[in-house]
TrEMBL record:
<feature type="binding site">
    <location>
        <position position="17"/>
    </location>
    <ligand>
        <name>a divalent metal cation</name>
    </ligand>
</feature>
<dbReference type="InterPro" id="IPR036397">
    <property type="entry name" value="RNaseH_sf"/>
</dbReference>
<comment type="similarity">
    <text>Belongs to the RNase HII family.</text>
</comment>
<comment type="function">
    <text>Endonuclease that specifically degrades the RNA of RNA-DNA hybrids.</text>
</comment>
<feature type="domain" description="RNase H type-2">
    <location>
        <begin position="11"/>
        <end position="200"/>
    </location>
</feature>
<dbReference type="InterPro" id="IPR012337">
    <property type="entry name" value="RNaseH-like_sf"/>
</dbReference>
<feature type="binding site">
    <location>
        <position position="18"/>
    </location>
    <ligand>
        <name>a divalent metal cation</name>
    </ligand>
</feature>
<keyword id="KW-0963">Cytoplasm</keyword>
<protein>
    <recommendedName>
        <fullName>Ribonuclease HII</fullName>
        <ecNumber>3.1.26.4</ecNumber>
    </recommendedName>
</protein>
<dbReference type="InterPro" id="IPR001352">
    <property type="entry name" value="RNase_HII/HIII"/>
</dbReference>
<feature type="binding site">
    <location>
        <position position="109"/>
    </location>
    <ligand>
        <name>a divalent metal cation</name>
    </ligand>
</feature>
<keyword id="KW-0479">Metal-binding</keyword>
<keyword id="KW-0540">Nuclease</keyword>
<keyword id="KW-0378">Hydrolase</keyword>
<keyword id="KW-0464">Manganese</keyword>
<dbReference type="Pfam" id="PF01351">
    <property type="entry name" value="RNase_HII"/>
</dbReference>
<dbReference type="InterPro" id="IPR022898">
    <property type="entry name" value="RNase_HII"/>
</dbReference>
């Protein structure tokens, strides 16, 4: 399926998406991207459909050709304080506010968003596989977050974050069981299934 350039009739339409919502460790990261209306790229798709190699190849292309882009991390302690959904939206708002050009319209991946300033917006389920700007935002959010996780992996290699990027893999959960949690773990998340079992 070919991804569409625009949802609205506005020239400065920004797509936004986040990565890392379901992770046990690390930030939730959002990106906002305004692409030129003439933008074309056959490789670009939802970042989950792309290999790491393709995402890495697309990152500089998106950055060089976009009208403007920005990325924002919201870290564990804030996720624990305001919850993951609010943190995801806050990260998107933060990325949008850092764009060099103020968007005239915002399209958001998913179905949850809070109005940003007075800019009209539309939430689009699976938007990252329908619109180029959301797909571009998903690629930037994922690549920036992945490189952050690879960096903190050096500090705590036993969790293998360079591989699992903080997602709840069997190996990650086993490491939490063995070593406990780090400052990068989200304390409000169900880190181990046993947290739901009562000691009777």
């Amino acid at each position: 399926m070919t991804l569409k350039n625009q949802y609205s009739t506005f020239t400065l339409e920004c797509g936004t998406d986040e990565a890392g919502r379901g992770c046990l460790a690390g930030p939730v990261t959002a990106a906002a991207v305004i692409l030129p209306t003439s933008f074309k790229n056959t490789l670009l798709n939802d970042s989950k459909q792309l290999s790491e190699k393709k995402r890495t190849k697309l990152k500089p292309i998106i950055e060089d050709t976009s009208v403007s882009f920005a990325v924002q991390h919201i870290y564990e302690s804030e996720i624990d304080t305001i919850n993951i959904l609010n943190a995801s939206i806050k990260a998107m708002h933060g990325a949008i506010s850092e764009l060099k050009s103020t968007p005239e319209y915002i399209i958001v991946d998913g179905n949850k968003f809070k109005p940003f300033k007075n800019i009209p917006h539309t939430t689009i389920i699976k938007g990252d596989s329908k619109y180029l700007s959301i797909a571009a935002a998903s690629v930037l959010a994922k690549t920036y977050r992945d490189s952050y996780m690879e960096k903190i992996h050096e500090e705590f290699p036993m969790y293998n974050w360079k591989q699992n990027k903080g997602y709840p893999t069997k190996e990650h959960r086993a490491a939490i069981k063995k070593y406990g949690i780090t400052k990068y773990h989200r304390k409000s998340f169900r880190l181990l299934p046993e947290q739901y079992q009562l000691d009777i």
